[in-house]
Design a protein that fits this description.
two-stranded antiparallel sheet, about 50% helix, alpha+beta, about 550 residues
């Protein structure tokens, strides 16, 4: 009968994304039992049929903007499908928006790493809803520049309660925060912003202008850049005022984006919108950069999670699909492609968690502080940039089945570019590396020393190449991407070696650092045991 289905891979549901990921299990070896229990629960959830359907619905039933009610009154409300709210509620309950700011003793010293584990697993399910989660968590870093605002807002942000009601912030059980920086005429060049902020008395300002991209428009408040008398400054702007009236947010439209569809992104006009200044007058960029730094870490973690989810789909498919009488995964060429991809996912994951560790230890360790400052743009650059190509290759492993929207791979693929673009595209990241090089070149000495130590024998050769690249980049801005990628690959290799990844680390080093010609995946040679790499990183459970 034509309705009979044979030779199709089963859905990748019913397992545990945490227990099925040996690299993540190793990265979390020193986590406390409560954190590991959290990871176990999230790992089961993200591979459940229920969760997969929530992710599907949140992206097919996209947000809708209602600018007016039926009588013509301004509403400026975005309606989301219940699936989106269910995902938000789960992630807020898991503390993805707040855990690095809480006083939980079981995460002491590893708050960023523990959160990275939760975030990485959740990204394998659905990343659109993680945009407001990321901004809420990161916004508290900026609010610390104003002790008054931090005291007022932090307790209501860190409640682990999701409240979607359209109410004044003071009446809600939990809050989310967004940010508004980008304008039509400037984009990344926020110093070209024209939005104005004028004193309104009692420490408040009236803000008038526009923002070209403002994601998560139903957030309870936003950190906004605007031109004050002293220069570009940062402001905290609630969406609804204490009396229940709107605060001058006039949403013009929602962006029709390639991916990230579950998350609304808007264009908005501010008309006499009330806000309070955060940080020093004229220091808006400096104030908001602490927030941006945390979002860049999340971009790398989310991209790593997307790649892990996509390659897991490809491995699952090839373990079940028969071609010419043999299982796809038993075909030598397919093995080389999958193993080559697995090396990049492992390197990206290890490097992202390495960056999270530096965030945890920066306050007490000079070398870790140097790593955090130098390597944040490096990690964000490389991890986010390789994700679209890797997810395309995973899609090709499934052939036509991977190219249809019914498969989650299509969503992963559409989602991947946003992390490379958001909070600084590739050139912005590379130029940030050069900025550090010009202002604090000594930081690179600490970073290279740690890489040389972790790489072990032969590490001096790699750091020698990096020192030469640093020398070139100091006088040649156009070489910034070369330096950035070399730093990323070296750091990923060093972390895999430090973790004791053995032949997996060897294969990464020989294929990524040895100068071999590479244009696509599948470039491993017979010296590397491709099947071992696949089965080690993606075990059959």
């Amino acid at each position: 009968m034509s309705d009979e289905v044979t030779n199709q891979s089963p859905p990748l549901t019913g397992g545990n994304a945490w227990r099925g990921d040996p690299l993540l299990v190793q990265l979390a070896e020193d986590f406390s039992d409560p954190v590991r229990k959290d990871l176990d629960g999230i790992g089961r959830f993200v591979l459940s049929a229920e969760a997969q359907d929530l992710a599907r619905l949140a992206n097919t039933e996209t947000p809708k903007l209602r600018t007016h009610d039926r009588q013509g009154r301004r509403l400026d409300v975005v309606d989301y499908h219940p699936a989106y709210h269910a995902l938000m509620r789960r992630s807020v309950t898991n503390g993805l928006h707040s855990s690095i700011w809480e006083n939980g003793a079981h995460e002491t010293g590893r708050r960023h790493q523990a959160r990275a584990g939760r975030f990485y697993l959740t990204a394998q399910l659905e990343t659109g809803h993680l945009c407001p989660i990321t901004m809420t968590s990161a916004s508290l870093a900026a609010l610390m520049a104003s002790s008054k605002l931090f005291r007022e807002w932090a307790p209501r942000i860190t409640t682990r309660k999701y409240d979607q009601a359209q109410k004044p912030p003071v009446e809600k059980t939990g809050l989310t925060l967004g940010m508004g920086m980008t304008e039509k005429q400037g984009g990344t060049d926020v110093r070209a912003n024209t939005t104005r902020a004028e004193r309104a008395g009692s420490g408040f300002y009236r803000i008038t202008g526009h923002k070209w991209f403002m994601s998560a428009p139903m957030s309870d408040a936003f950190l906004v850049l605007a031109q004050a008398r002293e220069g570009l400054s940062c402001f905290l702007v609630p969406r609804i005022l204490g009396d229940g009236n709107g605060n001058g947010f006039l949403f013009q439209r929602l962006k029709d984006k390639l991916g990230n569809r579950s998350n609304a992104s808007s264009e908005v006009e501010f008309v006499n919108t009330i806000g309070e200044m955060v940080g020093e007058p004229g220091q808006g960029v400096k104030t908001i950069m602490d927030m941006v730094t945390l979002t860049r870490l999340d971009c790398a973690i989310a991209s790593s999670g997307l790649m892990r989810a996509g390659l897991s789909e490809a491995v699952n498919h090839t373990r079940h699909r028969q071609v010419s009488g043999a299982t796809l995964i038993d075909q030598p060429l397919m093995q080389r492609v999958l193993a080559d991809m697995a090396l990049d996912v492992a390197g990206a994951t290890a490097l992202s968690f390495r960056l999270a560790r530096s965030f945890d230890e920066a306050a007490t360790n000079r070398g870790e502080a140097a790593f955090a400052r130098v390597m944040t743009p490096v990690v964000k650059y490389w991890v986010c940039k390789i994700a679209p190509a890797l997810l395309y290759e995973a899609m090709e492993c499934l052939g036509g089945n991977g190219y249809v929207e019914e498969m989650p791979l299509a969503r992963y693929y559409r989602e991947a570019p946003v992390n490379a673009i958001w909070e600084g595209s590739g050139n912005v990241m590379a130029l940030d590396v050069l900025r550090v090089l010009s202002r604090a070149p000594g930081l690179f000495d600490d970073v290279l020393a740690s890489l040389e130590r972790d790489l072990g024998p032969g590490g001096s050769g790699t750091t020698g190449v990096l020192r030469a690249a640093l020398q070139v980049a100091s006088s040649d801005e156009g070489s910034a991407r070369i330096l950035t990628e070399q730093l990323a690959l070296s750091a990923a290799a060093a972390e895999l070696r430090r973790m004791g990844a053995g032949r997996i680390a060897d294969a990464f080093i020989e294929t990524r650092l040895a100068g071999q010609w590479r244009g696509t995946y599948g470039m491993l040679d017979a010296r590397h045991d491709a099947r071992m790499i696949i089965d080690t990183l993606y075990p059959v459970i």
